[in-house]
Amino acid sequence: MTGPAALRRKSAELAGALPPLLADAERLAAMVLLGEHGRRHAGQGDEFWQYRVAMDGDEARNIDWRRSARSDVHFIRQREWQAAQSVMLWVDEAASMRFTSAKDLATKGERARVLAMAASILLVRGGEKVGLTSSANPPRSGQGQLVRMAQELSGLEAEADYGAPETHGMRPNTRAVFISDFLGDIAGVQKALTDAADRGVKGALVQILDPQEEAFPFDGRTIFESMGGTLRHETLKAGDLRDRYLQRLAERKAALADLAHRTGWQYACHHTNDAPRVALTWIYHALERRH
Amino acid sequence: MFTLGPIGFTAPWLLLGLIALPILWILLRAVPPAPIKRRFPGVALLLGLTDDETQTDKTPWWLMLLRMLAMALVIIGFAGPVLNPKTEVTGKGPLLIVADGTWADARDWSARRDRMAGLLEEASRAGRVVSVALLTDLPAGEVQFLSADVWQTRLGGLTPKPWAPDAEAIAEWVDGLGDGGFETFWMSDGLARAGREELLAALEDKGAVTVMQSPRPVLGLKPVQIKDGALQITAVRSAAVDAATVTITAVGLDPAGIERELARVEATFEAGADTAEVALSLPPELRNRISRFTIQGVHSAGAVTLADDGLRRREVALIAPHDTQEGLQLLSPLHYLKQALEPTADLIKGGLEDVLPANPDVIILADVAKLTEDQKAGLVEWVNKGGLLVRFAGMRMAASDLSRREEDVLMPVRLRAGGRTVGGAMSWGEPKALQPFPENSPFYGLQIPDDVTVTSQVLAQPDPNLAGRVIAALADGTPLVTRKEMGLGQVVLFHVTANAEWSSLPLSGLFVQMLERLAISTRQIAPSAEDLEGTIWAPVRVLDAFGQLADAGAMAGVKGEDLAAGAVTATMPPGLYESDEQRVAVNAVGGETVLETAIWPARIAVEGLNVARETLLKGTFLAAALGLLMLDILASLWLSGRLTGPRSGVAAMLALGLLAFGDHAQAQQVDDEFAINATAEVVLAHVLTGDTQVDDIAQAGLLGLSDVLFQRTSIEPADPIGVNIETDELSFFPLLYWPITANQKMPSKEAYTKLNRYLRTGGMILFDTRDGDIAGYGSQTPEGRKLQQLALGLDIPPLEPLPLDHVLTRSFYLLQEFPGRFVGRDVWVEAAPPDAEKVEGMPFRNLNDGVTPVVIGGNDWAAAWAVDNVGNYMFRVGRGYTGERQREIAFRFGVNLVMHVLTGNYKSDQVHVPALLERLGQ
Fold it and tell me: What is chain B's Cα-based Rg?
């Protein structure tokens, strides 16, 4: 796979997948109109924040003489703290994410990538740095980073049936978003969240489920196979399993919510037949919340 | 054959397969339904869940039962079940199947034929040779015994005949039966008939005879008669069994000329009675239109009786001269006519003017010499339309100069002045008797009583055509009755008076017969042999055994004597016979016919028609099995969750199927679309001829003309449309261009109606024979001939070559000639009214209002106008510049034509402009 031809083919492939993902994400992001917002802290930045009376210890060069001239005390002009925050995203690339129950429904993976990209776009617009936990690249800001992320997301495709959150790219005291169906072993999630909590990382878990996974509309003798084919379960009367399956699903959701709560994360479940905008807004507000 | 009650099996060993069913049951129960494989990420949550019930892996018992039933049906089906299996036929040697084959067989002929087919099948199985014979249609020569298979192929050709078997033919046939013995199967029609015993004896000589006879009585309808002004309908049956009711319908032409049921009446056979009578009273108008009576639901010639003149009452108008003096009734010129006609005809009295609008069948003028011009014209018109005018001579006619010098149009001959008297007190000679009627006379064959003498008569001038017009003459050769054809009708003159003044003819029975022969009166009873002697009757419509009327075609006529005898034979099938204006019906069941059930000797085995037929049930069983298997598919789908679960759409569709609805709505839409296209803008149209090339040129030509119109005038036509005159509505188009091809189809009657309505309501058709290059004066092209044929059905006014002052010459451009691709013959348009005059100082005449409905020419205009889709001319016209000039003139003609169609005679009104200006000036 060397030479100009291979390079060209690869770039064409990349370019082919990239614009739709970016375009979808842009469109989605455009639906969410968020006003300019700062950190609401005094700090380093360009925007004026407030005047405060100069106290001992303030450097003389910080005194705003123009303001101070109008009164008897000295005032210091403070700027709003605008230090950018880093948000790390992890999108599950396992085989189970490639499932969709109907032709006109997006696969879980597609939905996850679109959500992740749209959230990144919004965050970049808000002046934050974004990055992927699975990537070696550090979180950055700007359009270039978005394109790079889109490339990395489009290329994602793993053999494993179920994925576990990647944490090795996560930096301390950042924010993180994990998007997955979380149907695999919960131990991986547990480990990742504990890990994150150790590093002071907080964020949001977004569970993406297909409506069929929520409804279990099966009946009769059925062999269920995982997407990768590694797991099999045969039943003679699928209809009888429904209640127990739904109970297990509810337990899984509760476990995730509980885990998130204990580690100071947010948890939400999103279905592929719902409008992605709701999930996007939720992600954005979850990241904005102060803890 | 193994039988089980009424069902037998052709392959009973297969039934052993039923034993295998319980094994199958066990097998099927052991195998659970096949699983569906589904990709499902949620499987991780399912791991470890077990099914509660173990029962579910087995097929439910009812589904098993369904499948078992289906399997059992398949096994039984292939075992070949037969309902009512035939037992073996005993008997060997040749078999003769005899059927009467009369009209009485016709009502259940298919059953009889099936029975014959069954017999033939048995015979073929037994390897017997067979012969089949219809007694009404016996084959000539020796009886042929052939293999049953041969007869099976001929069976379809056997049809019953509407007449009874002929005894002589049967005797001849019996002689040809040969020496060998055979078994006989006689399918009797159920009617007693002379000669049966003899035939039976002859057949019994040869071997055993079995008779098959239906126990149902045979129904017949006797000729209908008029009694006391009502139709007396008599139905008869062969066996006086239980009470029964039959419905009798009277069929005839309605005023629109369509045959339909005119009346219906029910006749009831009392229990134990073999006749049922019912009276039907109808208005004469309706009664005269009845052509036949039938028993409803019985398809045989016996159940149909044809109506003839006997049921018709003619309307006869009697007109006498205006008489100022009172006379004795017996001397009244009309007395004897009234007496003769009253019982058989509807008489109309009144003045001639009152009578003519009633359109009577016959008008009798007794000694009327003077008729006004109006009366004369009215009478001539009426006679031409088929009326029969009968005139009697008398004193007034003898004294008048009617038809003296020239033959009067309403007189058959010229008359000599005065008339003559023979055998009177003042004259020599004896009163004259009548000559026997000549052969060409309608009276031919009537017996002339001795006491009929003539004492006075008016004499005919000897003219060249006199001899041909005499239909009755006196012994000395002078005409007594003369007749002449006129249009569809005729004029008859009796050279004597209608009363007993001049002759004793009105006193004799001959007078009534003569009136009857002239179809003035109608007889009430069946004609006797004497009445019909010497006449030849040609069949018009004949009945087949099934009671269906058909045209007689070229059948030979029958003698009046045979007709009177009424015996229906092969040469005289039942039907309607016509001779010289009179019609007589011959019916399968005559007035005297008695229907009786045939009684067979006790030694003869008689079986009914309804032998239970063998019915193969294999198909039924297999179809039922298939149906059950279909049910099984549905049930299995439902059980396995494929009918309700995800991706069940395909299964449901397969199970239910989709009904395709008719595209009626679509057709309606197409119609509307056509109408909208044609009417949204002005559209030129051409008639589709069926010749693709011609149609394409016409389309392209009109396209070219439309373009020119668009560029040069205020008419902005849309794209031209090809019109199918059979199906499309024409009234949307102002102008139809109709190229004539030699082999195009003639329009149907409906299409002609549509075209005529189109022409009458202001449409114009431009006929183009496209032969301007070869057609000249006096030579006819195939297209020209075709145009003549086409135009025959069209309502086209008188035509003339387009005059130089026609409005077409100036409706837009000023034109002198009208070339197309050819500069050919004249162009023809509707002729100007004869009174069109040239006004002083005007260049053209003050012509007719309105638009000429047709323009006929042969200059192939469409080819000159034709452009292809990029606007290039498709055909070369002429040569060089002159050719292009010719094309230009052709376009100008087209523009003028369309202008003429759309603006009418607007340009013609220009003649009034000076007058208008003058008036304005004042």
Answer: 42
pLDDT in tens, B228-248: 667 888 888 888 778 888 889
- Tell me whether residue B917 is in a domain: no
Contact A220 B47 (CB under 8 A): no
Q: What is the pLDDT of residues B627-683, one digit of tens each?
A: 998 988 888 777 776 666 555 555 555 545 433 333 445 556 667 788 888 788 888
Q: Which residue has 């700090």 as its token pair? A: A43
Could you tell me if residue B512 is inside a domain? Answer: yes
SS3 sequence of B677-693: HHHHCCCCEEECCCCHH
pLDDT digits 0-9 by tens, B573-627: 888 888 776 778 888 887 777 788 888 887 777 776 555 566 778 888 899 999 9
Asked whether residue A4 is assigned to any structural domain, the reply reads no
How many whole angstroms separate alpha carbon B277 and alpha carbon B740?
A: 62
DSSP state of B542: E
* Interface probe with A: pick from B31, B37, B45, most Cβ of A within 10 Å: B45
Task: Tell if the CB–CB gap between B640 and A220 is shorter than 8 Å.
Answer: yes
**CB half-sphere exposure, A38, CA atoms < 13 A:** 15
Q: Copy the structure tokens of residue B149.
A: 């298979």
Domain membership of residue B269 as a residue range: 218-313+543-549+556-596
Asked whether residue A89 falls in the same domain as residue A71, the answer is no
Domain shared by B134 and B244, yes or no: no
**Same domain, residue pair A196 and A73:** no
Q: Looking at the complex, does the CB of residue B46 fall below 8 Å from at least one CB of chain A?
A: yes
Q: Which residue has the tokens 């069946």?
A: B526
Residues of A in contact with B641 (CB under 8 A): 218-220, 222, 238-239
Residue B146 C-beta-side C-alpha neighbours within 13 Å: 12
How much of chain A is in helix, strand and coil states, percent to nearest 5? Answer: 45, 20, 40
Q: Which residue does chain A place closest to B638, by CA atoms?
A: A220
Residue A182 domain flag: yes
Q: Tell whether A74 and A113 lie within a shared domain.
A: no
Q: Are B386 and B510 contained in the same domain?
A: yes
Domain membership of residue B200 (yes or no) is yes
| Amino acid found at A152 | E
Q: What is the pTM of this model?
A: 0.41
d(CA B239, CA B237): 6
8 Å CB contact of A217 and B645: yes
**Do the Cβ atoms of B718 and B683 come closer than 8 Å?**
yes
ipTM > 0.85?
A: no
Of B406, B321, B418, B414, whose CA–CA distance to B369 is shortest? B321
The yes-or-no verdict on residue B891 having pLDDT over 90 is: yes
Q: Which of B444, B483, B453 is nearest to B467 (CA)?
A: B483
CA distance, residue B47 to nearest chain A CA (Å): 6
- Regarding whether B620 and B584 lie in a shared domain, the answer is no
Q: In B49-156, which ranges are continuous DSSP H helix?
A: 61-78, 103-106, 109-126, 148-154
Separation between Cα atoms, residue B46 and residue B36, nearest integer Å: 16
The answer on B628 and B492 residing in a single domain is: no
* Half-sphere exposure at residue A270, Cβ-oriented, CA atoms within 13 angstroms: 31
Q: Which CATH number fits the domain that encloses residue B248?
A: 2.60.40
Question: CB–CB of B118/B613 below 8 Å?
Answer: yes
